[in-house]
Amino acid sequence: MIIQPRVRGFICLTSHPQGTAQHVKNQIEYVKSKGTIENGPKKVLVVGASTGFGLASRITAAFGSDAATIGVFFEKPAAEGKPGTAGWYNSAAFENEAHAAGLYAKSINGDAFSDDVKQQTIDLIKRDLGQVDLVVYSLASPRRTHPKTGVAHSSVLKPIGQSFTDKTVDFHTGVVSDISIQPIESEEDIVNTVAVMGGEDWKFWIEDLKAAGVLADGVKTVAYSYIGPELTYPIYRNGTIGRAKDDLEATVPLLNKLLGDIHGTSYVSVNKALVTQSSSAIPVVPLYISLLYKVMKEKGIHEGTIEQMQRLFAERLYADHTPLDEKGRIRVDDWEMRPDVQEEVAQLWQQATTENLDDISDIQGYRDDFFNLFGFNFPEIDYDADTNELVNVPSIAG
Ligand code: NAI
Prior knowledge:
Elements: E1 7-8, E2 11-12, H1 17-33, E3 43-47, H2 52-65, E4 68-73, H3 86-100, E5 105-109, H4 115-129, E6 132-137, E7 143-145, E8 152-154, E9 164-170, E10 175-181, H5 187-197, H6 200-211, E11 215-225, H7 240-259, E12 265-270, H8 285-298, H9 305-317, E13 330-331, H10 339-351, H11 357-360, H12 363-373
Parallel strand pairs: 3-4, 3-6, 4-5, 6-11, 11-12, 12-13
Antiparallel strand pairs: 1-2, 7-8, 9-10
Helix pairs in contact: 1-2, 1-3, 2-3, 2-9, 5-7, 6-7, 8-10, 8-12
Bound molecules: 1,4-dihydronicotinamide adenine dinucleotide (NAI).
1,4-dihydronicotinamide adenine dinucleotide (NAI) binds next to α2, β4 and β11.
């Protein structure tokens, strides 16, 4: 079929199998160009492995450190006349590239919050790898069915206390407008968002993996967080999602205690704001990112997900010394948060209007990144050509 982008709001309903494969290939080339990560991981489980930071982590482990990888994700396979999701095609491309390079790579497609998928993962590790020495936890989801209570929790992106009004942009049209977001009406919103995006499920994973004996001595585990600038605090760090991130970060000492007897360590890495399927859904953030991109590109310090994860592995997680901030977190948002970067972004934020957006922001870079997520806008691909939508992830039957 001929596959073109079909966009609805911040979602693209179609993905291109060859374009996503190109995206994966480009990320692999970047990691290879940086050379081998000294003392890097060898057997890696990535939960949330199909897109964004999780995919970049999987690529970094495999192609920067020759690691065997198991990826867990929740994606839709392709059907006749209906393309699969980007994460499905990404995972197919990743496995093909890994296998061609002689690397073990298998995947599990299902609900990572469930006990069943955890058990399937444990069985696969036992059967094929014995143990893993790194567990990356990179889930981003709007909902979670709790495996013990059966309650379906939905997360919300809302301020706490007061309503919040600020600028936002429709990144397709470039129209800048004011948006007002009403605060939570009850504590339930916080409880639900923490249940979905907080640390409990990460803890369940590590508890189950440890109890099954599939974590190697000296295992590391890492999950991802975000802080960002003051201007997004009401909707992000001081909002419901921020409470979930507080909870995720508070899980680190619990996991360190749990892993103490096998000399394991857990980390939260605070990453840079980037265009992913999850971040494009957060109001205000796309305008911030398009200004941030402009400033960071001008200063020559822009990074995408793959550059961030390569730096996380090579210069933080597997460096001789892992530098931590005063709250015990790894920071690879350090360049984003540099005072000179933030001052310039704050000034541009004041000025931003529909009329000047093309000049003062990198809205085009934002759009490119967005379409790239779904395999579009790659010069190597002919989007008018017929392409086979029925691509399988090799390790997943059917
Ligand atoms: P993403 O949307 O690109 O990736 C989410 C992954 O989770 C995908 O692999 C998806 O298949 C998987 N997933 C979702 N629900 C699942 C389920 N029920 N079972 C199995 N897999 C499931 O998201 P992104 O942006 O890479 O986020 C990953 C983490 O990084 C999140 O914790 C996010 O808060 C954090 N982060 C994101 C930043 C950004 O700017 N995008 C900045 C800093 C941190």
